[in-house]
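ASSEMBLY PREDICTION REQUEST
Request ID: AP-0331
Submitted by: J.K., bench scientist
Number of chains: two
Total residues: 969
Priority: normal
Notes: Please return the full assembly, not individual chains.
Input sequences:
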Amino acid sequence: MGMQTIGRPTSPVAAIGGEVQTVSGSKGLMQREDLIFEIGAVDKTGVDLPEPKGKASRLGGVTRKVDTGLPGLSEPEAVRHYMRLSQKNYAIDLGLFPLGSCTMKHNPRLNEKTARMAGFADIHPMQPQRTVQGALELIDELATWLKTLTGMPAVAMSPKAGAHGELCGMLAIRQALIARGEGDTRKRVLVPASAHGTNPATAIQCGFVVDEIAADARGRVDMADLKSKLETTDDIAGIMLTNPNTCGLFETDIKEIADLIHAAGGYFYCDGANFNAIQGRVRPGDLGVDAMHINLHKTFSTPHGGGGPGSGPTVLSEALAPYAPVPYVVKDQDGFHLVESVEGEASEAFGRMVAFHGQMGMFVRALTYMLSHGADGLKQVAEDAVLNANYVQARLKDVMTPAFDGYCMHEALFSDAFTADGIETIDIAKALIDEGYHPMTMYFPLVVHGAMLIEPTETESKQELDRFCDALAAIAARAAEGDEAMKGAPYLAPKKRLDETRAARKPILKWTPPAPEAIAAE
Amino acid sequence: MRYLPLTPEDRAAMLNTIGAASVDDFYEDVPQSARLDGQIRDLPDHQGELAVERHLARLAAKNTTASDGPFFVGAGAYKHHVPASVDMIIQRSEFLTTYTPYQPEIAQGTLQTLFEFQTQVAAMTAMDVANASMYDGSTACAEAAVMACRVTRRKKVVLSGGLHPHYAAATRLLCEAQGIEVVELAPAIAGELELANHVDDATACVIGQSPNVFGTVTDLSPVADAAHAQKALLVSVFTEAVSLGLVTPPGEMGADIAVGEGQSIGNPLTFGGPYVGLFACTQKLVRQMPGRLCGETVDADGERGFVLTLSTREQHIRRDKATSNICTNSGLCALAFTSHMTLLGGKGFKQLAELNHEAACDLADALEAVPGVEILTPRFFNEFAFQTPVDAEAVLAMLDERGVLGGVRVSRMLPEAGMGNVILAAATECTTQDDIAAYAAALKEII
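STATUS: Completed
Returned structure:
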């Protein structure tokens, strides 16, 4: 037998195309992956543990009767399970993620490295304070950055997320009113119609009532409406205002608003979700703000993680600082220590919000980011974020309908006025998925019909923005022509459009074993 | 600037497209008096990776880690081993750098893991349904209290004297802001059943904990019966999720809501956060639950898929009528939890719990043999309270000098409880026989 000398073909040949049906359920790199309950087994494990010695128990008979019955997987199976699932996700590391109001910027890997240093990741919140001086120093250093950037005198570090920071600020306002003897009478909180849903929800959680104020034709607070709401002032607790607001605009009358609220005896809560647009250029402390949460997971690049964990330190004015929650870090001649109880120097504190000291893992990441950028870089961050948003607005303003005239801040807002009848914002969003992008925020803020809110952030290159704008402009043109095919988008995603109505009507919230007859029938 | 892609030429070209002279034009809406000139002072300029890493490493080096020596600190956060693959999985970019799965067609990875997480938590707690996580155990506890008030239309909650004091504080804070009366029973090492005597027809819920903050495990069934007789709910709390492998879980005791801290599974200590709150309840109560829920559905081709569901409970739809203001959950920590549970499996989970219990029993045996030490916790899982003749703060400081982090003094959390000589000590699968011997030897020298 001679050697075969021809070898394998190295040039593709034309073949009949069309949709390929596979036996495995996978589609090339997009692998089918069932639930762990369908692929695992209860006695299978990916962790080797020593055998228990079977000693006498000290549980006093308070023992579990029915085992969990949960399946396990060996390590190779588990790793594949999660890798295959990961490939069904879009992520900022894959491309532009223009989710307005969410600030999906690049998450530097150095942050992940520092957060995993044993000196931060492997320390316990209740260790003797002598043994965690570096951790307390880090919290103090981050607090200094936050206070300096915002021009505010104090910051509560323990809130676990943005909405939790809102709760912190509003509880501080509540406590200040109680201290003034007006806790029972000042219950009304003004909230613009454009606000994040968390704002009114938070006010209610704190026992306040919400009084909604209208937006004007420029997308800002309607000053006439605001003044009419302030005709009676003795029940005013405060205002919750986002700035830059959820329309991506700076509230031009913000100082007058602050003055009006203060004159009415109330406090000014600023939702700091959009601080990325103004850091280094404007300090909220110069605007009359009394409390503002900062989303470390937006402005300061800690990863969103598929929905948390976030972190929401809340800066406070002189008027609210005494009511800041415990615990907090103070420095004296012996070093740093924690004030943990509502007594002594913290006797006016409104209480404790969480078990421990806040989101330390996020603090490490945020400080790493701040030190990397420095004061000069953070200002450049804001300017590039705003430049990128205005560039997107400029590139799309002739094919889509800008919600308001003029420049925007860090996000560009469009209405659905340009679409043909029958084509909705959601169709544009889903068509973007086929172009390889995560959709923009849709149907928010509520004050704009079919709103599309695009926040590119500063970590996008001009090339990436151009590619995105080209894709979105083409989709907008199809929407204007009433291309019915858009109703079926996405076509190229891991899943077709999902039936959310069905999910809510009869909720299936966990896996249950198939009924025995169903197994028999297979 | 390594994280900023725009070049000066890009910026000029983009300004030209926009028709603006400079970025200053975009800030014209800012009141003149609030515009900053130049750069914020008193903060350093940008630095390279090497310099930043050195800065952080210098701070990290000032801390003593839980792996540096014998370590017995617990009280709501526990030192456990995290498999290497868990940390690899959560660092996968598609999980790490994505958002809440609002667009399910391109978020099935996150959604399926949340569905698996919910199923695991429901099974571990023996409850009907679980949500996609809360911030942590303490905030989950507070949310459970206000949920119970919504469900029962009552405005009083009763907290056991064994509820973690920080959980009690977080719960009191949220309740009082909403005009809910909070009755706190006096701190008691083994007093969970006392709750049964404090429930009346105005009570929305009683909140008991097992293992409680002193480590005591209790079958709360009599409390559930007493609560249900008054149409009140039992909220059952745990701070050590590994205990669920061995100890009677909330669902087997008749709990209506189960809440707890999930840090022990898959998540490092990280000085208290981020952690992952677990929240489960009976099927009947699901529409009053706070937080994200993931549910099964089908796509346009009829294929199984997952979406966030029942969002009409939530703030972004219901605004001031929402069940909670919670927005994010603790997604990545939930992923760490679920992937660690997947690696363990039911058998491994039970085994892990057994190892924890045995380590604590060994520790108790060793400490009990030290003259002057009295174990106060009658039944425990992996943590217990003990008393010495000496002030606990002094004992812990002297242990620290001998390289042993011996636990948490009760007076740090309960300064008024008159337990100045009481220490909480925890042991886990990470605790070695040498660690235990070192603790006992050091304690013998001190007292």
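REVIEWER COMMENTS: Residues 59 and 288 of chain B are 44 Å apart (CA to CA).
SIGN-OFF: pending second reviewer
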